Design the sequence.
């Protein structure tokens, strides 16, 4: 049977290939630490579960396609607290940030179109872009510049007649980069001058460490036609399993096109939307501060632990809960197999996300890995220690075999 | 700003245009009866809400991308009860049947491909097919043949080098047609001989009125490569707001391709999946019988009431909870505006879904409407009565103006 070339161009998760080795290691009694999973262990606020438990109707009916009214209003009010003025008509509730991304790509890209994405980037972007027929033109960023990319010199030479949009993650996954005000302004100006959409994935908005105020690209009201924001409750409220995100734009044509997709899929989950509305309604600055401080502690532990490892290079992340680390090894994929198949220290080993999957450019990121710091400080400390021991053992074995 | 031609080819729901008139009618104090909405009023089984309330973890975490294991197993066991043997690897949990449809279309269609769909059909199919770049080639069915379509003479002349699949809804929305065993066998053979996917949307499986056993296209094990089934808990358990569906196929290449999309969107809602697993685990034949009998009563009321209306033509539906009705009017769209803007009987009027939106062929279905019989018998009786009164008033006005 024949399949579409768009789906043929997509890949299964690169992490999957390690799954059998992980299962085998566990079967040998090895405890595997996880630096590879973006699932926080922070409790979901009770307000979510209370709202779901208090659902009163006998029938779990469809929600409206654009979203439950109380949730749309709660999101509008939340944006007002960070200085962004929106109408509920500028918001569509989506099935996680993922559906918002998928819908935007389907609306703005077609066969042969290009979208600029700073590299390394969130790998699932590739799937949604490929399905639309578009392709990623990577904006190069590198460990040397701390993965910052938002300059005219870097971006403008990449723009051609096929370019439709720039897609950024801010705060960044996998890099932890937070855009400066100047960088944001530069991106907005480039989008305006070249008639591009600027799609800003801001699902980690609250998780920033430098004391700056919360912000959104939607602050640039003069670029109303260009700016599209992807949002989600997953990280903000540690509620990844509730599939509630949002697509936000003052470009009413875009919203109207995306609504066609929302109507096609009928609605996002009714109960999850009730829970999400309660989360926004009960959100306090104290909650955000507490979550941020927890992640800051974890970041500090990771940074401190990594600093002790010889030959390891990285930059302390400014936001989100990830960082890219360059390891003193030839191939992070091979190291991962070694860590699962041959290595153990006191019955323990560690997993991470190898860097190559975060690059569109072939052979880039071979010596890099992404670390997610979503577990507790003790576990993180031990995980990084295991990484260091594993690197040493791997390089010793490599040298011995030469 | 430029938008993709695929999204430009999609439409907003044709029902939306009546919304302002409905709001205006309600503002005048008119009570509007709804024959236009597929939202059943049957209570959702308590097992769903109990499972959701009993969720124990502090963190609402991502579910696995292919679906929660207990739900996959419960679905497999459910299929066993209707005589279909599947492995959990043949099933992907999706965000409603809608996501399953969207994923299948993205996997099997590309620019210029054609998919055969019996007409009239569920309008949202158009959105998912357009987004993939494919197009619908309608298999003509008509009121005269009771909307049956599954014969070689009707289908084979429509197959060409662009044809990739046949998509059917069984039991049918909007027609209420249930395929006979011979018709199913014919479709399977055509798919096999012409190397086509046979995508069978079976979300109304339980709602059949002729005493036949529950069935699925998946029974045809000899066509494992061809057959893809779309399923959902929405209608089976009156739980439309829980976005839990499934994509089922023994074609492991298809499942592997669709899994790429499932991984891209991370997971379906965790709580809804818990609830869905409980629904399947606690499902009894008595529950299905009760629901079926309730819909049969409603169907009988609709059929009896429609039989009293002069000039109205229809065929008693064999399944699902819809039927197409040909009205003795020039234009069902115009009649709907008349019913909302000018008509009332005792302060009441009625809405339906005009037929044109269910056809891809231009100007077809102008005198047809789709009725959904999901409300209680008294309301249905009165709704059909209002329809009859409205038709008479509309035709009288038309004649008077000539």
Sequence:
């Amino acid at each position: 049977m024949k399949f579409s070339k768009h789906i043929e161009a997509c890949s299964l998760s690169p992490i999957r290939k390690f799954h059998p080795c992980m299962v085998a290691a566990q079967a040998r009694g090895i405890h595997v630490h996880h630096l590879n999973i973006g699932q926080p262990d922070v409790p979901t606020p009770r307000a979510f579960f209370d709202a779901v438990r208090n659902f009163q109707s006998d029938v779990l009916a469809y929600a409206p396609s654009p979203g439950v009214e109380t949730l749309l209003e709660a999101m509008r009010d939340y944006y007002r607290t960070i200085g962004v003025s929106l109408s509920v008509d500028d918001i569509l509730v989506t099935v996680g940030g993922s559906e918002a991304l998928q819908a935007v790509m389907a609306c703005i890209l077609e066969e042969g179109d290009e979208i600029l994405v700073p590299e390394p980037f969130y790998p699932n972007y590739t799937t949604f872009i490929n399905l639309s027929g578009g392709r990623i033109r990577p904006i190069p960023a590198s460990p040397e510049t701390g993965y910052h990319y938002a300059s005219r010199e870097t971006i403008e030479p990449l723009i051609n007649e096929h370019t439709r949009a720039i897609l950024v993650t801010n705060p960044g996954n996998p890099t932890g980069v937070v855009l400066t005000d100047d960088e944001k302004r530069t991106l907005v100006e480039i989008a305006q001058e070249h008639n591009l959409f600027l799609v800003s994935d801001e699902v980690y908005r609250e998780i920033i460490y430098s004391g700056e105020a919360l912000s959104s690209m939607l602050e640039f009201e003069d670029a109303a036609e260009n700016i599209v924001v992807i949002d989600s409750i997953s990280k903000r409220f540690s509620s990844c399993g509730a599939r509630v995100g949002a697509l936000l734009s003052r470009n009413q044509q875009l919203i109207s096109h995306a609504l066609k997709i929302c109507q096609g899929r009928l609605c996002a989950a009714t109960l999850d939307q009730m829970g999400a509305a309660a989360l926004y309604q009960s959100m306090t600055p104290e909650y955000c501060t507490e979550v941020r401080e927890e992640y800051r502690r974890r970041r500090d532990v990771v940074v401190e632990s990594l600093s002790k490892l010889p030959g390891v290079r990285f930059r302390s992340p400014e936001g989100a809960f990830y960082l890219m680390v360059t390891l003193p090894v030839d191939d992070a994929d091979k190291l991962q197999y070694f860590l699962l198949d041959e290595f153990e220290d006191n019955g323990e080993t560690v997993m991470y996300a190898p860097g190559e999957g975060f690059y569109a450019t072939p052979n880039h990121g071979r010596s890099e890995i992404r670390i997610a710091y979503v577990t507790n400080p003790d576990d993180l400390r031990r995980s990084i220690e295991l990484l260091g021991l594993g690197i040493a053992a791997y390089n010793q074995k490599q040298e011995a075999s030469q």
Summary: The first helix of chain A runs from residue 5 to 8. Chain A is about 40% helix and 15% strand.
